[in-house]
Write a structure and sequence with these properties.
By secondary structure, this protein is of the alpha/beta class. It folds into 2 domains: 269 residues, Purple Acid Phosphatase, chain A, domain 2, CATH 3.60.21.10; 180 residues, Alpha-Beta Complex (5'-nucleotidase,  domain 2). It is 28% helix and 28% strand. The strands form 7 sheets. Strands 4-3-2-1-14-15 form a 6-stranded mixed beta sheet, covered by helices on one side. A 6-stranded mixed beta sheet has the order 7-8-10-11-13-12, covered by helices on one side. The longest helix is centred in the first third of the chain and has 19 residues. The chain starts with a strand and ends with a helix. GO terms for molecular function: hydrolase activity; nucleotide binding. It comes from Ciona intestinalis. This is 5'-Nucleotidase C-terminal domain-containing protein.
Length: 462
């Protein structure tokens, strides 16, 4: 069995830095692999995708991710698992987009209480019978952490089933259905994929997403593969089932560089969707005198100049005592060179329509918010805080909830007063308690979260 795997694709245009990616070059690489494998084995490879395509991206601001229907269908995706960003425009919108795709979408451990169905209409399991008689069982699993990030879904309307317990159940069902090989498509962080591999021996291989760095790990004879992001990487996985039932695996990594030719058909799709936006996005809105670091591994683990830049602008506009932004706000996952700063750069960094709001917090609530922000370090989680008006240190080795070093916590240069009220500028998303910031959901709101200025507009105006 041969499998082609990729995950977490946002921008369909290529970037300047190698590997440049881009849907057109990626499609060329994909088609070449499909052709070569089919010619070599006599059977087409299985194409699978591990979530996140409808958002966030510059184009999604205009299409709400609908352009990805045509893109994924052109890539001939067979099976996929939902990612958290599939729901950025609502559950109903996600379900409609998925219905229009030719691929089968899985999500077997989150129940929508409103419908009593799997969230988004995802299937629990799927079996594919190959021409050689091999039966492949697939299941889709996600982690609980990203349920807190869903801006359009009330967490109370969702029933989460532990991915290990659910994985055991569904994998056993697939084995009972005659599956020779069980593959889990997941959209969760490495530690959770590792736990799944250790705890569910019926799963032969995990093809994951959510993390954006390419990686392969073997845990207790179960392989976990994550294939990068943004059309920059592709994995070819060849599996051989021996007579004793053991599985031999060969993994080939492909990087989408400029040496890969663009596929003409996909290039037309890309040009059609991007031509309308190109002229306006190329407009220079300012000049920056230093590189701005928006790499996920940086902005989701420490103070960065990009985080400071945006947070300080929010402080200037709102005149709040404190600014707190969840680092999942910053979507570019790259370094932005000094020089002309174009509208395209801004929309790459801040593609999501986030409204700026001002709320009133007590010192105690501010401390709770910061504790939440650093609670999952060293995972590169989007809840990590970028701030202005407040300084603090934290110990990542301390228990979650007790990581902030209290003596370092200062607001406007003064020690935090737990009983005092402070004004905080943040995003409506955070103020509603998303990304684990539940301590802020009951705070008094000074500005309307549904009609406040967009964060990208605030930065552009600055």
């Amino acid at each position: 069995l041969s499998i082609l795997h990729f995950n977490d694709v946002y921008e369909i245009t290529e970037r300047k830095k190698e590997p440049v990616g881009g849907a057109a070059r990626f499609a060329s690489l994909m088609k070449r692999n499909i052709y070569d494998i089919t010619k070599q084995t006599g059977e087409r490879p299985l194409v699978v995708f591990s979530g996140d395509c409808l958002n966030p991206s510059t184009l999604s601001c205009a299409t709400q991710g609908r352009h990805m229907i045509e893109v994924l269908d052109t890539l001939e995706v067979d099976v996929a698992v939902f990612g958290n960003h599939e729901f950025d425009f609502g559950v109903e919108h996600a379900a409609k987009c998925i219905e229009r795709m030719t691929s089968t979408w899985l999500l077997g451990n989150v129940i929508d209480k409103l419908t009593q169905q799997n969230l988004g209409g995802g299937m629990t399991k799927h079996i594919i019978k190959r021409n050689n008689g091999l039966k492949i069982g697939l299941l889709g699993l996600v982690e609980e952490e990203w349920l807190d990030t869903l801006a359009t879904v009330n967490r109370e309307d969702l029933e989460f089933q532990d991915y290990v317990e659910r994985g055991r159940e569904v994998a056993a069902e697939l084995r009972a259905d005659g599956a020779d090989l069980v593959i889990a498509l997941t959209h969760m962080r490495w530690p959770n994929d590792i736990r799944l591999a250790r705890m569910v021996p019926d799963i032969d291989i995990i093809l994951g997403g959510h993390d954006h760095e390419y990686g392969v790990k073997e845990i207790d004879e179960c392989l976990i593969i994550k294939s990068g992001s943004d059309f920059r990487n592709l994995s070819s996985v060849d599996l051989f089932i021996r007579n004793d039932g053991c599985v031999d695996v060969k993994i080939s990594r492909y990087d989408v560089t400029r040496e890969v030719e663009e596929d003409p058909y996909m290039l037309k799709i890309v040009e059609r969707y991007t031509s309308v936006l190109e002229k306006s996005l190329d407009h220079c809105i300012g000049v920056v005198n230093t590189s701005l670091d928006g790499r996920f591994k940086m902005v989701r683990s420490r103070e960065t100049n990009l985080g400071n830049f945006v947070a300080d602008i929010m402080a200037s506009v709102t005149r709040a005592d404190v600014v707190l932004i969840n680092s999942g706000t910053f979507r570019s996952d790259g370094v932005h060179s000094c020089g002309n700063f174009r509208l395209h750069d801004l929309m790459t960094i801040l593609p999501i329509n986030d409204c700026v709001v001002t709320i009133v917090v007590t010192g105690k609530q501010l401390l709770e918010a910061l504790e939440n922000g650093v609670s999952l370090v060293p995972k590169y989680e989007g809840r990590f805080p970028q701030v202005s008006g407040v300084t603090f240190g934290f110990n990542p080795g301390a228990p979650p909830g007790s990581r902030i070093v209290r003596d370092t916590l200062m607001v406007q240069g003064n020690p935090l007063d737990p009983t005092r009220e402070y004004t905080m500028a943040t995003k409506a998303y955070v103020a509603r308690g998303k990304d684990g910031y539940t301590c802020l959901s009951k705070c008094r709101i000074l500005t309307d979260p549904d009609s406040g200025p967009l964060l990208s507009t605030v930065v552009r105006n600055h």
